[in-house]
Design a protein that fits this description.
alpha+beta, flat, three-stranded antiparallel β-sheet, disordered N terminus
Length: 278
């Protein structure tokens, strides 16, 4: 869960941007070479020359790259996301990462702040995941495992745009590990494009947000079967789960969907629980 109140005061290490960019570049370079080689065989010399020019432009021109990576989410509405993708692998782990950024909001400070937060969150996730993969590998070897039989830990970072309009945007960044499901984490961003604020449940529903959200969740649970309710912890207090830091997103209809994190309300096998508030 992200502490949204800390956005304004995040301290970004001076070398962070270069570290992340170097990591991205390392994977992208090899993939560019592979794609050019494969398409050269399929499309012929003229197509290969055109492709090479395009790849070169992506590599040396930030403007060209940004335009190529824009994701038009809804018709003529603002296009606020671009992504960079990279792959890295060795004997211990393999990483597939897609990293979003926001742009074209008309608010430079907002974009810098959110993009730095995204970059820091991704960097921290990758560092922690790589450390866990190394520890797991070392323990495997120390307990007699054959290094050649070790299956690398898969680390995936991806994102999904949930909702976008001229006034609001909602997206989530997810991180998964193939061996450590308990370390799955998600970062939710709900942004008011007019004010530049990160929206909280209190911002959206007002001072009575806890009761409003809790009542809606309890109404949903009341419609569950006995078997479904059996996954919940005993003596669960829904209002105690709701705070300004509670995760949520806007669905495609613009309705709030509250996300109760794994283990907060139910057994781990249930995963995260989602409730549409209406």
């Amino acid at each position: 869960m992200i502490d949204k109140s800390g956005y304004e005061n995040i301290e970004i290490p001076g070398e962070l941007d270069q570290v992340v960019q170097d990591a991205l570049a390392e994977g992208l370079e090899q993939r560019r070479k592979n794609r050019v080689r494969d398409l050269s065989r399929r499309l012929g010399p003229m197509a290969a020359v055109f492709l090479l020019c395009t790849v070169t432009a992506l590599n040396i021109s930030p403007t060209f790259a940004a335009a190529a990576c824009d994701l038009p989410v809804v018709g003529g509405l603002c296009q606020v996301f671009l992504f960079r993708e990279y792959h890295k692998e060795d004997d211990i782990k393999y990483i597939d990462a897609k990293i979003p950024q926001i742009k074209n909001t008309g608010k430079t400070e907002l974009e810098q702040r959110i993009n730095q937060e995204i970059q820091k969150a991704v960097y921290d996730c990758l560092a922690a995941s790589e450390a866990r993969a190394k520890d797991y590998h070392d323990a495997f070897i120390a307990t007699g495992g054959d290094a050649e039989a070790f299956v690398p830990v898969g680390i995936t970072i991806d994102y999904e745009v949930k909702y976008i309009s001229p006034s609001h945007v909602s997206f989530v960044i997810s991180q998964y590990e193939s061996r450590f499901s308990s370390y799955h984490c998600e970062f939710y961003y709900n942004i008011d494009l007019g004010s530049g604020k990160v929206i909280t449940l209190k911002d959206w529903f007002g001072p009575s947000y806890q009761q409003i959200v809790a009542d809606s969740i309890e109404e949903s649970i009341a419609q569950w079967s006995d078997e479904q309710r059996g996954i919940l912890w005993e003596h669960l207090s829904i209002p105690d789960l709701i705070s300004e830091d509670t995760n949520f997103y806007f669905d495609r209809d613009g309705q709030v969907v509250v996300v109760i994190e794994k283990y907060q309300a139910a057994y781990g096998a249930a995963g995260s629980l989602e409730f549409k508030i209406g």
